[in-house]
């Protein structure tokens, strides 16, 4: 689905005042009258991604964002939108309500048009772990910057976070390209990665109490990869792994017998990857959460490809790698989680599981494709694997953190 309106609505003129409104609950269908807020979010994200990258692989079309927000089993997700005009009964500049999910009057009874929404934010509140955190995605429609929309949304976001007893807010901003070292760059405290200090997102975050904690590299691999290269990398990795490891590849499922062990791998993803100075604790998974995650991906119209490495002498899983792709046959996919347990590192298992996924994906969807991924800039080992496979950097994401006082 493409954006149906790329220009601001008629009400969004210079001097417009804005109010933050919690969207109606996620509607059951895309035809429901309350879909307007979710359509607006998707349209704004499309335009923001296009303005940042020059392409829209990472944009979530309406069916995808609708499916993602419908799934609330392990995270409560609240969509907030910015609409023109003051909230009824409120003095200019004040919040409409401090409780999450507030039923704020929207208009005179007529649902707003998606194009009238000036910005949007999603607040993601985990419910089983890290219940001190609020993860936030906040966007302003291109062309409406500088009208206070970001501040209006952020104020509401922080109200929601405080009402849910969250003490830390984490948010992200995308930048392309990564700036060169020097006075125009803000360096991550990890010592790896930079963002343009004068960019609007960086100035917004720094001016509102956020600190830069980590920079992630965005990379793209163009397919097909030279089979000679893959064969050589696979041969070296197989030699390093020896006879103790064997691979299993699954599409859109995790066999029941492996659910508990895949849950361990996803649990360790929360502790074994670089987290810089982020206030993040372990996020435990079990078999039920693995099944819920797969249902959620299906609800977001995503296929999932998982390759695991089994340590044959013990029958336990030592590594895994996950690729997601839209159900429609589009020319791109997403390299998601990859992990080798610390106790099994040094056997080139990360390369093995990634090559297995590349081959399986290319068999299912041959031809010219691309795979997008993100890695912490300080994650040297995983970045080395990606570089060897041919991933090329296209930009960075800044990870910002704010402690709520």
Automatic annotation (TrEMBL):
Residues 9-20 have a biased composition (Low complexity). Gene3D superfamilies: 3.40.630.30. SUPFAM superfamilies: Acyl-CoA N-acyltransferases (Nat). It comes from the Bacteria. Residues 1-26 are annotated as: Disordered. This is Acetyltransferase (GNAT) family protein. It comes from Oerskovia enterophila. The lineage of its organism: Bacteria, Bacillati, Actinomycetota, Actinomycetes, Micrococcales.
């Amino acid at each position: 689905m493409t954006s149906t309106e790329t220009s601001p609505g008629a009400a969004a003129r210079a001097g417009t005042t804005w109010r933050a409104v919690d969207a109606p609950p996620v509607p059951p269908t895309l035809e429901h009258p309350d879909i307007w807020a979710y359509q607006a979010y998707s349209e704004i994200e499309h335009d923001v991604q296009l303005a940042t990258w020059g392409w829209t692989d990472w944009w979530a079309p309406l069916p995808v964002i609708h499916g993602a927000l419908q799934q609330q089993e392990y995270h409560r997700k609240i969509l907030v939108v910015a609409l023109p005009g003051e909230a009824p009964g409120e003095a200019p500049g004040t919040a409409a309500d401090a409780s999450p999910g507030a039923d704020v009057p929207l208009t005179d009874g007529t649902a707003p048009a998606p194009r009238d929404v000036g910005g949007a934010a999603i607040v993601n509140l985990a419910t089983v772990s890290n219940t001190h955190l609020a993860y936030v995605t906040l966007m302003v429609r291109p062309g409406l910057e500088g009208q206070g929309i970001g501040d209006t949304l952020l104020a509401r976001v922080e109200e929601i976070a405080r009402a849910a007893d969250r003490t830390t807010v984490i948010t992200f901003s995308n930048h392309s390209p990564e700036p060169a070292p020097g006075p125009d760059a803000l360096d991550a405290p990890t010592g790896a990665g930079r963002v343009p200090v004068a960019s609007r997102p960086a100035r917004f975050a720094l001016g509102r109490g956020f600190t830069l904690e980590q920079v992630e590299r965005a990379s793209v691999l163009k397919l097909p990869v030279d089979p000679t290269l893959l064969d050589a990398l696979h041969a070296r990795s197989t030699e390093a792994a020896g006879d103790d490891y064997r691979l299993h590849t699954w599409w859109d499922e995790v066999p029941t017998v492996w659910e508990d062990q895949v849950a361990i791998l996803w649990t360790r993803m929360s502790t074994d990857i670089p987290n810089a100075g982020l206030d993040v604790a372990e996020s435990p998974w079990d078999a039920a959460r693995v099944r819920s995650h797969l249902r959620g991906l299906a609800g977001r119209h995503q296929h999932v490809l998982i390759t695991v490495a089994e340590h044959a002498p013990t029958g336990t899983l030592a590594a895994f790698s996950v690729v997601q792709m839209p159900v429609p046959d589009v020319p791109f996919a997403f390299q998601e989680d990859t992990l080798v347990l610390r106790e099994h590192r040094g056997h080139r298992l990360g390369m093995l599981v990634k090559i297995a996924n590349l081959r399986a994906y290319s068999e299912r969807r041959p031809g010219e494709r691309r795979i997008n991924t993100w890695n912490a800039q300080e994650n040297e080992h995983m970045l080395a694997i990606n570089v060897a496979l041919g991933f090329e950097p296209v930009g960075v994401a800044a990870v910002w953190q704010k402690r709520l006082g």
